[in-house]
Backbone:
């Protein structure tokens, strides 16, 4: 394990890359409702099963991807980077995207028969409760992860709850909230 | 409204641009850029591709870019859009990670990241809240079973540490069963 920056493939354990590819390719077809619902499972695998990183590192990597532009799926690239540098990032991102992209491409050619079909709508609606449950569980997991390394765990939980409430009520650009979080962190509050 | 279907080069540049404009998710930006500004496709065509992207597993915006790429330029178009949506954010992320790797012993960076991580947790919670809104419509016979599913799946995942596959099969299956019964 290491975050040393390397472009050279011969420095990287190819078994490790194969493991990353397998883990994320399997998750690709289970990514119902997008990437955030996958966070509890990814956390379980990379922290508890493979011991690739600590709980705190996982939370920090997620925080970094939230501060960067782009799709949520980039958290997978960050995890791959932590495990095996740049090759790890590329392998992991490709593995999580390609199986589902191939499926989407295949179904898109039948779009006229699928997109407005009542059964497709029912399936999509039916998957919402479990997706909400998974995303809510992700939020709890991340809140716990941030509290573990925080100066004050209570302040950390309070900040998470405040960000949630402000977003629900006022829906500001998330960058403002992340910036406010960074300032509170720098001030030693959390 | 006159539509202007993109060439493969425009697909690439368009998705390159969309990739870096979104923070905390790119999907909301895609509709405005593709339907309103660039006028590549109609609202209906966009909704059709979005429905497919959201129905199927995988990162929604990546699925969407593949569906739209295919629509206009076949498989090469899909490859161009897929690469473009991921390329720039990936480069930016790797730069940020390089800075992070060099500064793990800088206390200010670590301190700022503590605050950012807590906010990020809250943002994900707000996403769950927003996604739950369509579930609480209608009378109690409709929303009580749906919300019970949400609550039991949260307990299953967090307290009982259920794995993803059984969680999806059981709670996803029950949810789909409910949706078919309620709508027919």
Residues:
């Amino acid at each position: 394990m290491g975050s040393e920056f390397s472009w050279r493939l011969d420095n990287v354990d190819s078994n490790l890359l194969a493991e990353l590819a397998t883990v994320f390719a399997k998750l690709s077809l289970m990514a119902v409702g997008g990437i955030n619902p996958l966070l509890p499972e990814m956390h379980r695998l990379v922290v508890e099963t493979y011991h690739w990183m600590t709980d705190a590192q996982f939370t920090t990597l997620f925080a970094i991807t939230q501060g960067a532009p782009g799709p949520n799926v980039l958290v997978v690239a960050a995890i791959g980077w932590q495990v095996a540098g740049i090759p790890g990032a590329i392998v992991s991102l490709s593995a999580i995207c390609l199986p589902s992209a191939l499926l989407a491409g295949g179904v898109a050619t039948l779009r006229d028969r699928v997109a407005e079909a009542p059964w497709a709508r029912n399936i999509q609606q039916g998957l919402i409760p479990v997706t909400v449950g998974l995303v809510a569980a992700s939020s709890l997991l991340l809140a716990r992860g941030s509290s573990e390394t925080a100066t004050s765990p209570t302040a950390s939980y309070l900040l998470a709850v405040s960000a949630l409430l402000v977003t629900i009520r006022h829906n500001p650009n998330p960058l403002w909230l992340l910036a406010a979080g960074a300032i509170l962190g720098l001030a030693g509050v959390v | 409204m006159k539509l202007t279907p993109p060439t493969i080069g425009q697909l690439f540049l368009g998705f390159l641009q969309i990739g870096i404009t979104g923070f905390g998710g790119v999907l909301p930006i895609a509709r405005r850029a593709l339907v309103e500004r660039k006028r590549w496709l109609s609202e209906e065509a966009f909704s059709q591709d979005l429905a497919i992207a959201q129905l199927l597993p995988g990162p929604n915006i990546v699925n969407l870019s593949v569906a739209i790429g295919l629509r206009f330029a076949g498989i090469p178009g899909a490859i161009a859009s897929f690469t473009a949506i991921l390329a720039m954010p990936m480069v930016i992320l790797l730069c940020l990670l390089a800075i992070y790797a060099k500064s793990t012993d800088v206390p200010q960076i670590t301190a700022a990241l503590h605050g950012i991580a807590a906010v990020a947790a809250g943002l994900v919670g707000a996403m769950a809240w927003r996604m739950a809104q369509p579930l609480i419509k209608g009378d109690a016979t409709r929303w009580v079973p749906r919300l019970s599913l949400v609550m039991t799946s949260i307990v299953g995942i967090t307290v009982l540490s259920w794995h993803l596959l059984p969680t999806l099969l059981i709670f996803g299956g029950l949810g789909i069963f409910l949706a078919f019964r309620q709508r027919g």
